[in-house]
């Protein structure tokens, strides 16, 4: 069976969905923290940083983020698309994706598996279900 790979548009839509989810979670956590008296600012900063930094790597080790799930795409190991990436690959992948931003997606249309720079660096590939 030949694998299908998501388009740039599908990957961007997935990223947009994940961004909206993170914003919603930040608002929810902010409202919860507002219910407590004298919550130090460092607690808020730590919680929001943790949410922003851990969301994608954690979900990727399970195969997909919520945005990926909705769009029907999954992240897998490039050498074996039946295996999910491990936490090390997810942690390597995410800061590269964040630091390069849109630049990371420039390679998607230049290779058959539509791998972004962060996929190439971490040994991952996105597949379409």
Automatic annotation (TrEMBL):
Residues 5-123 form the RDD domain. Keywords: Cell membrane, Membrane, Transmembrane, Transmembrane helix. The chain crosses the membrane at residues 12-33, 45-70. It is found in: Cell membrane. GO terms for cellular component: plasma membrane. It is a multi-pass membrane protein. Pfam families: RDD. The keyword Membrane applies. This is RDD domain-containing protein. It comes from Pedobacter ginsenosidimutans.
């Amino acid at each position: 069976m030949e694998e299908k790979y998501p388009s740039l548009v599908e990957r961007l839509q997935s990223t947009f969905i994940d961004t909206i989810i993170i914003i919603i979670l930040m608002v929810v956590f902010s409202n919860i923290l507002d219910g407590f008296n004298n919550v130090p600012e460092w607690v808020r900063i730590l919680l929001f940083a943790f949410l922003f930094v851990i969301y994608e790597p954690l979900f990727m080790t399970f195969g997909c983020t919520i945005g990926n799930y909705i769009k029907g795409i999954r992240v897998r190991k490039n050498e074996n698309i039946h295996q999910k990436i491990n936490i090390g690959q997810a942690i390597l992948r995410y800061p590269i994706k964040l630091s390069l931003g849109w630049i990371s997606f420039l390679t998607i249309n230049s290779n058959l598996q539509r791998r972004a720079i962060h996929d190439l660096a971490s040994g991952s590939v996105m597949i379409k279900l």
